[in-house]
Design goal:
This protein is of the alpha/beta class. The chain has ten helices and eight strands. Bound molecules: uracil.
Length: 245
């Protein structure tokens, strides 16, 4: 584990130990105070500087898919986007994080979760012992809906096969769906997210486990909910730990 991460976890009041073989954070104390959790997933000053931007080289099949997505005109969103936002991260990742759709920052930079919500997502990942580069981050939609409106059902359907192909190629061991839109569209349900939390789901037509939690943008508006998110992340970590066990 990196020194910055140890410090990060200590400052958030989480006791951790590391399985040197698996190099995964294995245990997280249960008695985390609300204020510590809040500090944990807010504090931006402890987040390491992002690596200098470079063009990500994907394996051929994923690169081909990215290229196909970049010229997609399957729905109206292609007329208003600056560029498509395919996804970023480790093409071999165990963890796939799925959000809703690019916002203004993401549309400009071509990378998911780069705005304030993205900073918070990075913190959530660090709290789990995961660096952004270790996971793969993608969205339900690859193009920004104008004015950040909710995705329309036709847009979700048009984009669906891209996400499914990403999942087939990356072969993650677990999906973390952040936010209502991601959770409901991924799992094809209309259950309120508050009711979905705390349960384990499977990606349709597969055994791939899915855990649902609140969107970091929601946490920016409702910081008191961070405690619940930390509970969800702990469920996800426990589940992940037992996948190969
Ligand atoms: N919110 C999302 O759901 N995805 C992004 O990429 C950015 C913000």
């Amino acid at each position: 584990m990196q020194a910055y991460q140890q410090q990060y976890l200590k400052e958030m009041g989480i006791d951790v130990w590391v399985d040197r073989q698996a190099e995964q954070v294995l245990n997280v104390s249960e008695d985390i105070t609300a204020s510590n959790v809040s500090k944990a997933i807010t504090s931006e000053r402890q987040i390491p500087e992002p690596a200098p931007k470079s063009v990500q080289v994907f394996p051929e099949a994923l690169a081909t898919l990215k290229k196909e997505v970049s010229t997609c005109e399957k729905c109206e969103l292609h007329t208003s986007r600056t560029q498509t936002v395919f996804g970023v991260g480790n093409p071999d990742a165990d963890w796939l994080i799925i959000g809703e759709a690019p916002g203004a920052d993401e549309d400009r930079q071509g990378e998911p979760f780069v705005g304030r919500a993205g900073q918070l997502l990075n913190s959530m990942l660090l709290a789990m012992g995961l660096k952004r580069e270790q996971v793969f981050i993608a969205n339900i939609l690859k193009c920004r809906p104008p004015d950040n409106r909710d995705p329309k059902i036709g847009e979700v359907i048009a984009c669906e096969s891209y996400l499914r192909q990403q999942i087939d190629l990356i072969k993650p061991k677990i999906i973390l769906a952040v936010g209502r839109i991601a959770a409901q569209n991924l799992l094809k349900v209309d259950t309120p997210i508050g009711k979905m939390r705390g349960n384990q789901y499977q990606y349709p037509d597969s055994k791939l486990p899915v855990i649902v939690t609140y969107h970091p943008a929601y946490l920016l508006r409702s910081p008191r909910e961070k405690r619940k998110v930390w509970e969800d992340l702990k469920i996800a970590m426990r589940l992940y730990k037992n996948i190969d066990a």
